[in-house]
Amino acid sequence: MMDWTDRHCRYFHRLLSKRARLYTEMVTTGALLHGNVPRHLDFDAAEHPVALQLGGSEPADLAKCARLGVEWGYDEINLNCGCPSERVQRGAFGACLMAEPALVADCVKAMADAVNVPVTVKHRIGIDKGESYEFVRDFVGTVAEAGCRVFIVHARNAWLKGLSPKENREVPPLRYAMVHRLKQEFPDLVISINGGITSDAQLAEQLQHVDGVMLGREAYHHPWWLAGWDALCGDEPPPRSREEVEAAMVGYMERQASSGTPWHSVARHMMGLYNGLPGARRWRQVWSDHRLKDRPPREVMALAHEKL
Length: 308
Hints:
The chain has 308 residues and is α/β, with parallel strands linked by helices.
């Protein structure tokens, strides 16, 4: 979800669900230790609970960045061991770390010793063409011994060569049973599943086997789906209509303008809000029209509603 789940996206998603735990896009240790920390870590208080996802493989660097995350108020620090992109591999982190469970354990321990919030790990069920359950079982077991109690498992292998990250979201096949087996073997750990889940029925089915479900692009492209998630947790959903969510986002755009953020940098994340309704495409066209970028967002909203 690099370049997708930025702070503006997360604010939008929080308007739709108060219970969902929101995750940042992956932030590398180098970006925090040598770059613009506020740019990467600033967020709105409304986003809680929110987790900072880190990319890195040096325990000392990860510990420093975990401390930064806690100083900035994050509720969880997550280590990414699932991204298969070659750029990430060149930095020796992401999915390639699954081949070095002892190193991941060292990283987790260093972070856990440095902070007082949960340190979690997101990973795949395997790398390349290996299909051994024992591989992922031993990875989870080793990392759990270092203090990690929460594992978010993308239920397909990461192919480190021969596939783009986009292709690796659909190839090779998903194997949910591997994740279910992890939960059976590690009943005291929190095991969440990720990959290919697109409906309430699938959500409910997975929650019969695991503790949680992580969703990415499906939630991004069909955000109104989030509005029903709180009910799955036994809570009342936020009492907002799509129109009220859109108006709340316009208010947020106006507040962000005071710090120099153009409204279209925020609006891009809500393009799926009316998906499935008549006029949704025309509504998106108005909000995406570059000729309107100098207009106030409230005026653009009024123009967009003429198309719905």
